[in-house]
Amino acid sequence: MVRFLLDTNVLSEPLRPQPNPTVMQRLIDQSEALSTAAVVYHEMLFGYRRLPESSKRQAIGAYLQEEVEAKLLILPYNAEAANWHAAERARLVGMGRTPSFADGQIAAITVVNDLILVTNNISDYADFQNLQLQNWFI
Questions:
Q1: Which CATH number does the domain housing residue 84 bear?
Q2: Model's pTM, two decimal places?
Q3: CB 124 within 8 Å of CB 100
């Protein structure tokens, strides 16, 4: 059963020269419960496509295809998520807080799918209502 939605900084951790061992173990332990958002996948693909041809680019491309796309549920930003996001964005802007649009989309996809967002950027998401967060880096 899917329980977690991985943010970009968690999903990209295996690509680091020295990945965080705690994060890596959690990714293994929770492998059947993981998903990500189409917005996160876009962020990773965008970064990959901007790289010049190199062995690093090839490794990232293989990871995205063989590990992310082939093995993870990639959840869409749909009408339900758009509705939640619009309401939250209006509330936050009214309070003088303006989160990034992509973070709002990721939060919305997480909430409407009743998942826990796993991120190392807790502060980026702290103002969203009803969003469950976990940081596997600590």
A1: 3.40.50.1010
A2: 0.95
A3: yes
